[in-house]
């Protein structure tokens, strides 16, 4: 198995009587772009949470870089190269945009966060601003988080998650809470940044236009199971997917 | 280290040390005690930056004081530098033992657990008659690398010693607050989930802050014991810890000098209200804190932050 491949095998997860993941098996090749679709409660976010260590599966294995990562803490999984963004952008509201980026930069610095190195040192600031420019949000660098639009928050959340050696990026609904005219520009920016860095992408999405445009392969979830795993056109024309996920006529 | 910080530290050292010449004896003692307590509060402020408040910093204040006293009385050690080092080392070890445990808790649970630990020490010391029980112990005047001053020179030497320690500790804490680790502490206060998912250990950040607070608490307790010439279990009592929290809230978490100013204000308000309203001085203190919280919810330190904000 190649180093960047994510292999999920027979993963199960239940919350009491509710089955959130049942026999989930999928292999995501290095550099691929996968999208996860499904109605609310279908198991998409549970999948993301299990891969990133937020939830421990009841059974199964999740292999990455030659190791079973089940049971590892989120920070350990992040250190291995599996990074994530959140459905609701997770930012530090009392810090500015630049300072949020500096936090990410400090954690992923060559020697780890230092007790003596000033967090606002010139090199770190230059790196932070370069990342913000890459995501087209550098003009907001001195603003506090509550002053930002949903789109800028999403971009900052993803930009922070990109810090360090990202091999797999899981984006949980990257366009939720974003104005409709901002969705494609944001996805263009994000996908360009991730693809140019050779990062494997797995994103959760409800907007089928975005799924069709950006993903190479789609996993359709229903009732904790994967009911379809194929190219976007194939999955979206699958009668079962149309019945349980997209609601479109078969 | 920024040149501004060095200049500020030197100015603070000179201005505060000038007190050894111009202050009357009573004021010098009052300032020395305020500064010693300010050290303890600086440790609480370090934790506050991470979003937790210790209601049991009396544990380390008392531990430092008793360590110095017991070492002085048992082994005849009187050198203030050695006593301070030993107390700091003991508090470091105890901090390292409790830090990882406490770093799992937040909010009221962290506050109450830290308070519980200090009250366990209070209860234990009160029952240990062989080290004075509730009466406590006396400690002889310290020496300074072999020099044994008496009277006003002793008070002045002790005062300059605490000023020096406070300026060094304040400078180091400012460096820490401005460092990458310091920024992570602020980020943790805001959003632990984000910090963990960026790959840092929040528990580790919290433990460091707790241990730094323990060491500062121990040094503060040692100096207070030497200034008073006496220690007793009240050093670990919850009202003593509450006083430290009072100062930390008064100062806020934004500025290091604000902590020292708040500690001095508390001592002054307490001393003068005790003098003029002996039966209601706690009321005066409470009204004062209420006024500060209403006018400056982020503490005295926010005055400096606001000014800086206006400049930019």
TrEMBL record, chain A:
PROSITE patterns: ABC_TRANSPORTER_2. The keyword Nucleotide-binding applies. GO terms for biological process: D-alanine transmembrane transport; L-alanine transport; L-isoleucine import across plasma membrane; L-valine import across plasma membrane. Keywords: ATP-binding, Nucleotide-binding, Transport. CDD domains: ABC_Mj1267_LivG_branched. It holds the Pfam family ABC_tran. One of its GO terms (cellular component) is plasma membrane. The lineage of its organism: Bacteria, Pseudomonadati, Pseudomonadota, Alphaproteobacteria, Rhodobacterales. It comes from the Bacteria. GO terms for molecular function: ATP binding; ATP hydrolysis activity; L-isoleucine transmembrane transporter activity; L-phenylalanine transmembrane transporter activity; L-valine transmembrane transporter activity. The keyword GTP-binding does not apply. This is ATP-binding cassette domain-containing protein. Residues 6-248 form the ABC transporter domain. It comes from Sulfitobacter sediminilitoris. SUPFAM superfamilies: P-loop containing nucleoside triphosphate hydrolases.
TrEMBL record, chain B:
Keywords: Cell membrane, Membrane, Transmembrane, Transmembrane helix. GO terms for molecular function: branched-chain amino acid transmembrane transporter activity. InterPro entries: ABC_transp_permease (IPR001851), LivM-like (IPR043428). It is a multi-pass membrane protein. GO terms for cellular component: plasma membrane. The keyword Transmembrane helix applies. This is Branched-chain amino acid ABC transporter permease. Signal peptide: none annotated. The keyword Membrane applies. It holds the Pfam family BPD_transp_2.
């Amino acid at each position: 198995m190649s180093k960047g491949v994510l292999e999920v095998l027979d993963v199960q997860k239940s919350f009491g009587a509710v089955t959130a993941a049942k026999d989930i098996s999928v292999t995501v090749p290095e550099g691929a772009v996968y999208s996860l679709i499904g109605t609310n409660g279908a198991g998409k976010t549970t999948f993301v949470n299990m891969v990133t260590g937020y939830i421990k599966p009841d059974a199964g294995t999740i292999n990455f870089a030659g190791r079973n990562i089940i049971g590892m803490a989120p920070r350990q999984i992040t250190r291995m190269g599996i990074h994530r963004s959140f459905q609701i952008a997770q930012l530090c509201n009392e810090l500015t945009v630049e300072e949020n980026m500096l936090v990410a930069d400090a954690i992923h610095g060559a020697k780890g966060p230092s007790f003596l190195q000033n967090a606002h040192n010139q090199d770190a600031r230059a790196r932070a601003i370069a990342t913000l420019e890459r995501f087209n949000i550098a003009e907001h660098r001195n603003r506090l988080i509550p002053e930002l639009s949903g789109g800028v928050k999403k971009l900052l959340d993803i930009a922070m998650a990109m810090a360090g050696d990202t091999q797999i990026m899981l984006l949980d609904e990257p366009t939720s809470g974003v104005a409709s005219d901002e969705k494609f520009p944001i996805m263009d920016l994000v996908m360009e940044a991730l693809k140019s860095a050779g990062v494997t992408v797995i994103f959760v999405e409800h907007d089928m236009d975005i799924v069709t445009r950006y993903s190479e392969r789609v996993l359709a979830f229903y009732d904790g199971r994967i009911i379809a795993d194929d190219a976007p056109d194939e999955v979206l024309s699958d009668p079962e997917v149309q019945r349980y996920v997209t609601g479109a006529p078969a | 280290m920024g040149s501004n910080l060095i200049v500020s530290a030197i100015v603070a050292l000179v201005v505060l040390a000038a007190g050894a010449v111009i202050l009357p004896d009573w004021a010098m003692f009052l300032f020395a005690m305020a500064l010693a307590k300010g050290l303890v509060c600086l440790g609480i402020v370090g934790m506050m930056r991470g979003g937790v408040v210790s209601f049991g910093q009396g544990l380390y204040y008392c531990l430092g004081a008793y360590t110095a006293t017991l070492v002085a009385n048992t082994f005849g050690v009187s050198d203030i530098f050695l006593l301070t080092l030993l107390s700091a080392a003991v508090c470091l070890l105890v901090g390292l033992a409790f830090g990882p445990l406490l770093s799992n808790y937040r909010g009221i649970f962290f506050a109450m657990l830290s308070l519980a630990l200090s009250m366990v020490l209070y209860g234990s010391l009160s029952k240990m008659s062989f080290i004075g029980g509730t009466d406590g112990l006396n400690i002889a005047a310290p020496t300074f690398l072999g020099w044994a001053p008496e009277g006003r020179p002793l008070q002045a030497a002790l005062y300059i010693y605490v000023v020096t320690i406070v300026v060094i500790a304040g400078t180091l804490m400012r460096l820490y607050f401005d460092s990458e680790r310091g920024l992570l502490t602020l980020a943790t206060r805001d959003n632990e989930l984000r910090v963990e998912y960026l790959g840092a250990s929040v528990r580790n950040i919290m433990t460091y802050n707790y241990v730094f607070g323990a060491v500062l608490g121990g040094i503060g307790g040692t100096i207070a014991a030497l200034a008073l010439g006496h220690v007793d279990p009240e050093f670990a009592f919850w009202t003593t810890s509450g006083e430290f929290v009072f100062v930390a809230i008064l100062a806020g978490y934004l500025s290091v000098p604000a902590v020292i100013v708040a500690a001095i204000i508390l001592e002054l308000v307490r001393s003068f209200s005790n003098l003029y309203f002996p039966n209601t001085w706690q009321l005066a203190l409470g009204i004062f804190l209420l006024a500060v919280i209403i006018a400056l919810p982020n503490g005295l330190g926010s005055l400096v932050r606001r000014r800086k904000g206006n400049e930019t």
